[in-house]
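seq as requested:
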Amino acid sequence: MSKKRVVITGLGVVAPNGTNVSDFTEAIRTGTSGIQYVDELNQLKFSCQIAGKPIYEYDYLNNYFNSIQLRGLHASGLEYGVIAGLDAWKDAGLTIPDKTENPLWNAGIIFGTGVLGVDKFREAIYKVDAGNVRRLGSTTVIQTMASGISAFLGGMLGCGNVTTTNSSACSTGTEAILMAYDRIVSEKAEIILAGSTSDSGPYVWGGFDAMRILPHKYNNNPTEASRPMSETASGFVPGSGAGALVVESLESAHKRGATIYAEILGGHVNSGGQRNGGSMTAPNSIAVKECIQQAVINSGIKANDIDTVNGHLTATTKDAMEIENWCDALGRKGKDFPYINSLKSLVGHCLAASGSIESVATVLQLKEDFIFGNINCEDLHPEIAAMVDRERIPSKTVSKPLQIAAKASFGFGDVNACIIFKKYS
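struct tokens:
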């Protein structure tokens, strides 16, 4: 029996270099960085005083929230997720049932996050400690519970299928898309809005600054700080935002006459169990390679079919190891290696949102036949140069007919996820 085909019919994104799909596409094509100096981090004595943060005016939220929902709203991740999610739904041409109608039984939400509403949490802690619990307001819980984002979107869109939030560190967004894919393949749903979001701000990024894994020498030239695969990479730049994809059965998409961005051929999720070199913060290479290889097998393709890879590649000392894992898993190297890039050179590491934002970028590449350039990678790390031909790591955007792209994320906790996308035909 043939496997149910699953496609992507809608995209939404709120990224540091673009808060809608049109601006984001232009930014990644032109190599426009969204990383900037953040004075608040300086005032708080962070070593790293730069970050990737989506920029928009407060009034922009009126397009997505009503006045009651905006009252006391103090959760940037919730804002990003709702904007990206509603944009993707609208982009897919989907309707929203009236409040008096039944919910959409075959449509659901799988929208992940690491933490949600950190600023609202801080506000609540101060009030509770001051004995002002009665002044917390009625929305503190829904702004700070992890599933607040999926609950918000589920209610706004009237979805009656699964409505849940997953959390697996940097793999969250990629995992959410695969969870949606699996639910549709198993015929438990027809449409799932999948994605992930991550708050902005010092209370999210402070822990990483304390770990001394963020760059501190680029506070005066922030756009040069994120340097995946570079010999001078010195840590990841913290970022934030949200990405959303409408994942849908091909039958449903055809029935609606929807625009199809790409097909999901399959993928795989696993964990290295923090064994064989894996730890809370480092991946087990055996598990990484197993994840990639199982994704290829599950997708029914050969490793040689992959045209381009969007890696995890955070701009740390682990980049060379990731490239080695890709080479071993695919059995390809030198000029035979697929093109590879990292969105993090342009937006930083958007943590739980990284997998979904980077998947949006990967799908846009497939749809429009281009591979965006890796900025700040003029000095390719010599260990990477010994494995992959320089031409396969473009520093500027190249136009190229593409058929198949792989996207992978590797997260804290030694968790991995890899998706195989295909141009729809």
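The longest helix spans residues 76-91.
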